[in-house]
Every structure is written in structure tokens, then in C-alpha cells.
Amino acid sequence: MTKDAEGVWVVGYGSLIYKPPPCWKYMVNGILHGFLRRFWQSSIDHRGTPNSPGRVATLIPYSEIIQNEAFKKDLDERKTRDVSTGHDLQLLARAYYIPPEHVQSVTEYLDVREQNGYTAHKIHIHLEPPRNEPKELQELLNKLPVDEVTGKHILVSMVYIGTSDNEAFIGPENIQDTASVIAFNEGPSGPNYEYLKLLHDSLIQMANQIGKPLEEIEDSYLDSLVECTESIRSNKNMKPHSDSKSTSVT
After folding, report:
1. How far apart, in whole angstroms, are the C-alpha atoms of residue 34 and residue 136?
2. Phi, psi of 231 (to 5 degrees)
3. What is the pTM assigned to this prediction?
4. Are the C-beta atoms of 56 and 158 separated by less than 8 Å?
């Protein structure tokens, strides 16, 4: 979350993409550099239960990937483009502008929604504004710096990340194991598969709005996870998977 004289910007990469924070006025797609999105975070109060935790998204920074052989192996198996620096890693995210009169209520809402394993971190998002954006939005964006490489306005904001040292962190996990959890788990916020499907569908739509196929922006992890999960769900004899790892996320 980033404050200015008029309001705040909130950036999301998981459920905030398809289930935005309340009271937002403007929504702008963007690209994060230097991170992987992985379903390596456990969920017991949104998409799973303490007895059968679900899986939800978190971000893995490039600085950890190059120091962790398991993380690096996962990237090597899923990358769709050359990755020689952190800037080469890309994933889609979404920024929401919250007017000043709603800042306090939205902050309180997010503090409750993003808890138990998630902590706040600063992140840069390179914005991809819609064509013919409203004049007020254009004025807000023009206050932001422009990246010399991408030519895009950069927003520095706070996001919630389940870091690799939090108690709910699962990964790196075999994608088949992750899919078997997601396929049948449910929590107070609904089926785990719904979370995955809504996020994936939203990212495809966002990529189309930017004018690139999703596979040209991100690695193949999410596509493979959806394919694997749907294959498991199609098997009527498959039993729900459970594990004992527990914590809470969105």
C-alpha cells in the first residue's frame, strides 16, 4: 500500500486480483519483476481448514531463488524465457487506487484478510494503464516515476507476502501434490479450486488487455497447475487430499 496526498494504492497478485479490496476507484494492471508466483502457502481459514489446509499464492523473490537449489530447479522446469537477472522474471499483478475517505476502512479490512503467515513488504509494479484512461487517473499516474528500461510508470507499494520462513510456507512442492490438495479442499471462503481457477482466468484476461499471451509474460507454473488440478478433479474416484500443515491466508 502506498499513500499520496489523495489516497492510497493497493497492489495484489493473488485473490485481490479477482476479489478486489472495497471502495477502490481506479484499477490498473501491471507487471512485477523479480518474483515467482507459487501456490506454496498453506491456508486453514480461507481455502482450507486446520484438518485439511488448502494452498494459496505467495511470491518467491529472485534473491532467494538463486540461493536455493530447490527453488532454482522449480524455475528451470517452468520458465518460458531466458532468466539471467531478476528483472527477467515477470508476473502480472493489479493495482487499486483507494480514495482518502476510505483509506482507514480498507487498511483495517486488509489487515484482517491478509494475516497468519503473510507480512507486509514494499514492491515495485510497472503499470500498464488502460487506453483512454480517465483524466484524473492520468494525473495520478503522471506523478509517478518512469522506468528507464520499460518506459512504464513505477508504483512502489506495500503487498502481503507469505515469505519462505513463515510457519505456513509449504514449498517447494511437487506440482502434482499441490494439485491434489487444491482439487477437493474447501474452506470458509469456498473451494480451493475456485481460488485457482478465478485467478488463472483473471490473469488470462489481464494479459489480453495488455496485448500479450500469458505465456509470454509468466512462466508455465500456473498453466500446469490448473491442468493438473482439473485432471485430478475429472477422476471421480480420486479422494480428497489432506495434510497437517496449518496456518491462515486469503
Report:
1. 30
2. -65, -40
3. 0.88
4. no
Per-residue pLDDT for 244 more than 50? no
The predicted model gives 11-30 an average pLDDT of 95
Q: Would you say residue 6 has pLDDT above 80?
A: no
Q: Taking Cα atoms as reference points, which of 231, 224, 187, 200 lies closest to residue 57?
A: 200
**What is d(CA 238, CA 113) in angstroms, rounded to the nearest whole number?**
31
Nearest to 117 by CA among 57, 178, 71: 57
Q: Give the residue numbers annotated as catalytic, written as ranges.
A: 114
**What count of other Cβ atoms lies within 10 Å of the Cβ of residue 40?**
23
Cell numbers of 160, please? Answer: 502481503
Angle between helices 221-233 and 69-78 (to 10 degrees): 80
Distance of CA 49 to the CA centre of its chain: 21
The pLDDT tens digits for 137-180 are 999 999 999 999 889 999 998 788 999 999 999 989 999 999 99
Neighbours of 202 (CB within 10 A): 16
Asked if 27 and 202 count as a contact pair (C-beta separation under 8 A), the reply is no
- Give the per-residue pLDDT at 245: 43
Q: Where are the beta strands (DSSP E) in the chain?
A: 2-3, 8-12, 26-33, 35-43, 54-61, 90-98, 119-128, 154-161, 186-187, 190-191
